[in-house]
Amino acid sequence: MAGPRNISVSEASRPVLPRHAKLKYDETRQVWVILAPERVLAPDEIAVEVLQLCNGERNVGDVADLLAAKYAAPRDAILTDVIAMLQDLADKGFLTEIREKTS
Amino acid sequence: MSEVLGHPPVASDSLAVLEKQRSTAETFGIPLAVLLEITHRCPLQCPYCSNPVELDRSGKELTTEEWKKVLSELAEIGVLQVHFSGGEPTARKDLVELVKHASDAGLYTNLITSAVLLTREKLGELADAGLCHVQISFQGVEEGLADRVAGYKNGHRKKLEVAKWTRELDLPLTVNAVMHRQNLHQLPDIIQMSLDLDADRLEVANVQYYGWALKNRAALMPTVAQLEECTRLVEDAREAHKGRLTIDYVVPDYYALRPKKCMGGWGRQFFNISPAGKVLPCHAAESITGLEFESVRSNHSIAWIWQNSEAFNRYRGTGWMKEPCKTCEFREIDFGGCRCQAFALTGDAANTDPACALSPLHETIFKQAEREAEGETSRFLYRNFAGGTLESENGA
Questions:
Q1: Looking at chain A, which terminus has fewer C-beta neighbours within 10 angstroms, N or C?
Q2: What are the binding positions for [4Fe-4S] cluster in this chain (chain B) (predicted)?
Q3: Statement to judge: residues B66 and B210 lie in one domain
Q4: Whole-prediction pTM
Q5: B44 and B146 together in one domain
Q6: How many domains does chain B have?
Q7: Where are the beta strands (DSSP E) in A14-93?
């Protein structure tokens, strides 16, 4: 099902790419792309890594933990960057999130 | 994150193409997206149709197997997205099969449709086949005007229904609204309609005046005041609905001082394939007489046609230019505007597009458009295979 739109990314959110945004490696041009309705976005290396970690299970905090450990970098700075990148994607309409079912 | 594709200012109903903003086109790399006009058949008769005035009849259309071969070839050479368009693409009985073939080949598939022939079952089949996105054209917000513009009874009601099914099937929806003098007053309601339909994108596309639309210019040309209001409304709505509704905006170039960089420059970032299999630098290119376009039915590959064919190379770059383009400081910015418009209005595609203030014809054409916009003409010449039918006096 379609996830919610117009989301506000925080440490607790569990973002995922919606069905209509596809992360793909473009063999011809040797770059990662996000295919979206009538758009092709060019994510940078970090964005690709973050999006690959956003599997609907992990929240943004988990992603920041993993990246902080991997790059031995300050978690706060990473968290800020990750949220900014994901919010930018959300504002363009290419990000949704998994929410707990409410009655 | 950078966006490498956006919208070039293109024509009319249900036609949206992509353009690289930071182009690698100096090497004429294969375009990221290709428009497939799989048929010219369409139940609608919009007077601004982007199809050529000389339509391909169904007997000339590529077969299912030919289109499948084209799709495989496009994926192989590096195309990432295809737009199934027309005419009305759902008029082809093999559309589900073609979408499935494209998806299996790894292509991102967009459907650009008038929606009036779709059933819920058919839309479900398309979704199951891997369709990624649906774009539905709207001619207005209420059926009186919308059905009159389309020349098709009950079309508007059907479109609303199909838009609802699209979202129920979890497919992203684009509302394509083609704007002109007779419906620009409905723009605020069109924006609201897009929100109510839970659309992701809205294309506010002012008519571009060649082909059918040029024949109907006097009935369609907006006034300067209308256009200014339109721009203001789009800007406000973009801000108000950020993150909820993306709005793409195409202005009519008659009222601009600089011409549009049509198609991102001829043969630089775009091609489309006509129902009969011609590989074209622009959907209107066949209106330019004297150019020979190669077909996917020829012995040449699509990549070869893109790189080497005479038609693609004729207006590539700047070498073909005459004055005032030839020495103009903007020549690599707009590439002299639109070749089809230059041909339609001056008789020579190598002339400067009269939309440009530096064209000797600009003043004359601008004044004429202004006069037409203030005029009384509102009757349409409807698009059809018979060369057009004039709307009856009392509207029909």
A1: C
A2: 42, 46, 49
A3: yes
A4: 0.90
A5: yes
A6: 2
A7: 14-16, 22-26, 31-36, 39-42
Higher-scoring residue by pLDDT: B371, B9: B371
Same domain, B178 and B229: yes
Q: With respect to residue B178, please indicate whether it lies within any of the assigned structural domains.
A: yes
What confidence score (pLDDT) does residue B76 get? Answer: 96
Tokens of B176: 């394509």
**Does residue B292 share a domain with residue B244?**
no
Give me the pLDDT at residue B243, please: 77
B81–A35 C-beta distance less than 8 A: yes
pLDDT at A101: 57
User: B315 and B280 in contact (C-beta within 8 Å)?
Assistant: no
B36, two tokens: 């497939």
**Has B262 been labeled as part of a binding site?**
no
Q: Which of A2, A5, A93 sits opposite B170 (nearest CB)?
A: A2
- Higher-scoring residue by pLDDT: A99, B293: B293
pLDDT at B395: 56
- Is residue B80 domain-shared with residue B133, that is, in the same domain? yes
Whether residues B37 and B165 fall in one domain:
yes
| A35 alpha carbon, distance to own chain's centre | 14
- Name which of B110, B70, B112 is nearest B89 in CA terms: B112
Contact between B170 and A19 using a beta-carbon 8 Å cutoff: yes
Token pair for residue B187?
Answer: 């723009």
For residues B154-163, one letter each, b for 16 or more C-beta atoms within 10 angstroms of the residue's C-beta and e for the rest, the string is ebbebbbebb
Q: Give the span between the Cα atoms of B253 and B9, in whole angstroms.
A: 9
A26 → closest Cβ in B3, B80, B246: B80
Range of the domain at B296: 270-359
